[in-house]
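Troubleshooting log. The previous structure file for this entry was overwritten by mistake, so regenerating from the original sequence record. Sequence copied from the archived sheet and checked twice against the printout by T.R.
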Amino acid sequence: MTDILLGYLINNFLIDSHQYEAWRGLSQDELREELSTAGIMNSAEFDEFSHQLATGAEVVEEQGE
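Regenerated output below.
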């Protein structure tokens, strides 16, 4: 999930390549904290994005069945 989120952020110019590389190996909780500290995404936004990703993944799985 963190890879997808970081990909979204870098593709939309919300983070730079240095941040992307520095944050690639972080857990969800660590990434949530880093994004909040940097003022990029607060915890509620992170949770909403995570929920959207999970919901989207469920829809894709259902369509594949």
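The chain has a mean pLDDT of 87. Archived copy saved in two places this time.
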